[in-house]
């Protein structure tokens, strides 16, 4: 994937993960809350991956 695609996918995962975490907390569903946190971490990693690709391309 390219830089933009990685950043876009990362942003999506962060938003969806945040929603899952919020719903999990509101419904006292610890499994959904944990999945939301994990998806947010995945989103941060994808965003970082995109930034690294961008930096490499700039060099």
TrEMBL record:
SUPFAM superfamilies: Hypothetical protein YjbJ (SSF69047)
Bilayer-crossing regions: none
Gene3D superfamilies: YjbJ
A Pfam family assignment: CsbD
Domain CsbD-like: 6-57
Protein family (similarity comment): Belongs to the UPF0337 (CsbD) family.
Protein name: CsbD family protein
